[in-house]
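Notebook p. 47: complex prediction with zinc ion.
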Amino acid sequence: MTTASEIRASFLRYFERHGHRIVPSSSLVPHDDPTLLFTNAGMNQFKDLFLGKERREYRRAASAQKCMRVSGKHNDLDNVGPSLRHHTFFEMLGNFSFGDYFKEGAIDLAWQLLTAEWSLPPSKLVATIFGGEGGIPRDDEAHRFWRRFLPADQIVELGLADNFWAMGDTGPCGRCSEVHYFRGRDLPCPEPVCRGVACSCDRYVELWNNVFMEFDRQVDGRLNPLPAPSIDTGMGLERVSAVLQGTISNYDTDLFAPLLARIGEVSGLTYSPTPGWPSGQASDRSNPSPETNRTNTSMRVVADHARAMTFLIADGVVPSNEWRGYVLRKIMRRAMRHGMRLGLTDPFLYRLVDVLVGEMGPAYPELAANQEAVGRMIRSEEERFDAVLTGGLPRLEEAVERAASAQGVLPGEDAFRLYDTYGLPLDFVEDLASERHVSIDRAGFDHAMEAQRDKARAKSAFEGRKIQEFSFRSEDARQALSAAGDVFEGYATTVVRAVPILAAFDESCRQVEELREGASGYLALGRTPFYLEAGGQVSDTGEIRVETGAGRAAVDGVTRIAAGWPRVHRVRLVEGAVREGDLVTAEAGAALRDATRRSHTATHLLHAALRRVLGAHVRQAGSLVAPDRLRFDFVHFSPLTRDEINALERIVAEEIRRNTIVDTEERSIDEAIAAGATALFGEKYGERVRVVSVPGFSMELCGGTHCRATGDIGQFTVVSEGGIAAGVRRIEAITGADAVAASQAARAALDEVLGLLGTTADQARSAVDRLQADVKRLTRELSRMKVESARGQQGQIAPTVAETEIAGTTLVTQKATNLAKLELRQLADAHRDRIKSGVVVIASTTDERVSIVVSVSKDLTERIQAGEIVKQVAPMVGGSGGGRPDFAEAGGKDGSRVDEMLRETRQVVERLLSGAGGTGRQPPR
Ligand SMILES: [Zn+2]
Ligand SMILES: [Zn+2]
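Predicted complex, structure tokens below:
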């Protein structure tokens, strides 16, 4: 049997032999595209190459790309489980040509790989081509090239829905050609007439899609030929493994078998493989019981989702309630819910991680590198879900109960709140609701969900306003600006002179000729020193001045219309006017920029120091680099100790003292990574990258602005450390003058305290110890005196004490004030010691609150219990309580009724002693 790892490797080796650059899979988090939830195709990382926006030194590439399909057009989430060939996470093998070979080359390469390299019999292969539809002609070329290998009856013509691909409404698009594998007519088909390659049955399996990017679709729908036609292909590793390993189900391949075996181990159940191919006949396919089906379905869900969560977390996604983290959490909870169906009520998903790392680790080193962190994060999410169920279930029960007694429909808003606020998965809610014959208003739920998504989207897209939001005077104006390019000179300087204003926009992003005093808007400049927020570093602020003195604008932010376009500066006209075409001086505030440099270089030092102090598992999860502070989020599982924080500060201070020159250079990405540069998860890097290093200490891929030397930072102080999500910590720190000011403020506070104590720093500790000892002693003393005065002196009873005989038993009641719990107990003990046998009931009021203690001497607890007394009297002062037969306590809210309560106590005690206790007297224990 060929393993999936061998298939992956042989695919890449084959294309490498044929002149392709093997490009590593990009992260599942597409950093450059805020509109895309997760990487969902091999071509994502090459998008700019296809669009001609980027050039690289190669024109042929191949990759095995990690993909997730859980939203939008490609949403396979709901199919996972019932289906034998759908996945949320999968690997896409692909070869790409950027204006190099085209249809003939692609078809040749595909054919040779399938038939020669992998020895699939040509008689089992069926190709599809575009047969012509919607005014787009049949793909005669593709047909001709396939005919060299296949008889005409093994070439099928399909229409727009199957064999035409487009990147968007406009832009690159083209006809496609798929390769299907025919498993045989022995397999059953549920349809009256099998529809062949288009059928839902398992007789044909689609292996490979070749997209011929040949047209550039215009706004008016016209298809212009692309100057450099390209190839984009995709083949699911899971499917091709199933074919080469002779299984019908992807889940029976070695990609899933070990995982399913482990799930079987932890659940004590067995996954039953799908029978029937290639050896078997249709008659072999006995129908499994519904129970086996349910078990199999849940095991597939768990296996699929375990892969998805492991890869997502290894790529830096953290479960949360927003955007990508939200999807991850949803997947994890769906897996847990199916785990419950398998009888798994304790955390179990984290126990699957090592199986996956064992199988996939060699191909995806990020798994092994983050194995421990991934396992811990999954476990903590599983524990959190336990807590969710504890917290959310009662609310769900309540909501379902309400719905059941109303129309039997759970309002969508309610369902969404359970889902969103309490984290209960919708299908979980549905399951429980349907048991009570309650349905869910799905439309209302979807509506609430959509509103939440919009919020998440708005939040995620810092990229600012996108191209469609800026409107241009004319198509020519748009073209001109897009071609002008983005020239950032801010690494070298904070002032750029004689720059033309390329375009001006008003507040609502409409292109205008000029902005006048008082107006706000946007200015696009040909060159600029202004940094645009990226890599956590905030945008610069500053000023743009017309060189003739005609106008001056304050810059409070920078944004981008689209990648590669000149950046636009958000401005407010302070005086005069600026017009398109004016030559201006653009100046980023030097003082703020210097402060930002300090923060940024200090962030790199902190990152490296964290790895030294806490270990190599520390990964950056986010950062903010601002002039006045820096914030660094990282993956780590316990709060930092004071010693660890001290060690961080010490190490960073040492690097500052060394005053090392900060080195920035451009390198190729491979070279940089090989040299040990820290690349950030989810970050997309081009061919050439900027490497910022503090030689001997830190090396990161970074586009930010930095100090000349570490000594410029001056001083570094951690001001806070805390947790922001499961497994994610946040450190905030300050540098330079702010750090000096902070230590001075700390010293001033200390001086003030020392002044009040009248002591010196080295004596402070013992002064405070003395003070605390005094307070403790005085409190004890006061307590004793309060109890004594309440009890009464030497043989005489205090006037607040009432003592009566009831049925031969002594009852002592007392109303006291301002006694603490402990004092009340001591007072009760004192009374009991005095009367030897009897019942003591004391109430003490403090402000309006009432504390009650009841003590019953041991010899009487057979007849009357303190707990029972307190249960009956406390409600009179709006309280409740309980306790042992000989001692009980309660609290109440209504101090005005204490006298009444104490009077009533006599009747209560009388009733209880006479055995007519009334409210369920407990047998003595
Ligand atoms: Zn069929
Ligand atoms: Zn950086």
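Notes: Residues 30 and 36 are 7 Å apart (CA to CA). Residues 535, 600, 604, 700, 702, 704 surround zinc ion (ligand 2) (CB under 6 Å).
Next step: compare against the earlier run before touching the bench.
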